[in-house]
Amino acid sequence: MTIIDGKEVAASLRKEIAAEVADMTAKGAKAPYLVAVLVGNDGASQTYVGHKEKCCAEVGFRSTVLRLPEETSQEQLLAEIDRLNRDPEVDGFIVQLPLPGHISEQAVIEAIDPRKDVDGFHPVNTGRMVSGLPSYLPATPDGILSLLRYYKIETAGKHCVVIGRSNIVGRPIANLLSQKGWDCTVTICHSRTKNLKEVVASGDIVIAALGKAEFVTADMIKPGAVVIDVGITRVPSDKTKSGWKLLGDVKFDEVAPKCSYITPVPGGVGPMTIISLMKNTLKAGRKEIYG
Ligand code: GUN
Questions:
Q1: What pLDDT, in 10s, does the model give residues 215-235?
Q2: Which of 52, 219, 221, 232 is the one with CA 20 to 30 A from 64?
Q3: Which residues approach ligand 1 with their CB closer than 6 A?
């Protein structure tokens, strides 16, 4: 059994991106420029955006965080998005989710110019992805693909069972793994799936992305399966300084011994998502997808 080391893979890809940025700027091009928009005071979002800013600096990107107050109206946010869409200096930008309840996330996502949508959330990008056209891929699915690639995990002809059908993880990863080059036979399970245990137990590759802590137990896993855990549930803990710890969607201690490969939480898929954002920002800087 191999524990997939997301930190190691992320560090390796970060170096590759930094080398490409250095090469680009040595040839006189500007470093890619990413803007992150943060509305309100959500603690987790502030942490994520801080990590993104730090990673940008590490790979040599320019970056800015645009902090807006909790009371920002949807209209005001849409006006900022319009400004970023039109600013030729800005290669790509993200609006950190979740947004305050009075703002429609869908309206915000659809207001972003698809050419600058480095989160890959705009319907133009998801549509292009599903059609197998070049697009900005959403971070978590792309991170999973990078892990499979790095560890040379065979996917062709394998039965991949995805648990969870979210727009940002379950459905895109299911679609991508069914495409040419990955060639999985894919099943998506969700809250209405019948015989979920049996379906999951038939998976050669199981991707748990339902957001329920320790949902996947050893009896649901075929011996030798590859298990990718996308869950990140915060639970109170008296053993950590912060007072909480992260749990995945997989009961790691009992599932790991049955697997060929498994991702831990934290340190599996998590560290990869920022790298995917960096990959998209590099593509945006090079005008690689839309010219
Ligand atoms: N909130 C949690 N993950 C993400 C992400 O990948 N992008 C954005 N914009 N918000 C998030």
A1: 999 999 999 999 999 999 999
A2: 232
A3: 94-97, 119, 139, 273
